Amino acid sequence: ADIINFVVITAAASACNSSIFTTGRMLSSLTKDAKQPLTMKLNRLSKHQVPGNALNFSALVITLAVVLNLLFPDMVFTLVSSVATTCFLFIWGSIILTHLKYRRTTDDMQIKFKAPWFPWADYFVLALLMLVAVILVFQLDTAIALGLSIVWLSSLYLIKGHQMKRAQA
After folding, report:
1. How many angstroms separate the CA atoms of 20 and 62, rounded?
2. Residue 46 pLDDT > 90
3. Spatial separation of the C-alpha atoms in residues 56 and 24, rounded to whole Å
4. What is the structure's pLDDT at 68?
């Protein structure tokens, strides 16, 4: 049992280390051309070319997850996985909607690879994504996560729209 526990803990530590590294690098890359001072700080590299601020931010988020797990041990896994599920629903829904718009605005002769069963496959995938969202509403834990994700994504959309209006003015 001790050997199995050691292997599991080592694997978890390795996965956490990998997550911090990739998230830190991704945050640094995504904020490369940022114009807001707070966002620009995430891209700042140390003298060893390490995105220290982005790594610290990633570690802070993981620490927040640990604290939440200590405070609400029965609820955190469901909350985090439900938020991730909701974000995946949003991302894949956006991809499908983008594909539908692309196909409507592009001449069929220009498309070298055409997705099979267009547009019915796209509508089918959107229906499945909606079904998963509806299923999330049936449990309180997942409904809370769905609601929080919708508020979060709506806030990001409104903030970006406000920034774009200010930039145009």
Report:
1. 8
2. no
3. 8
4. 86
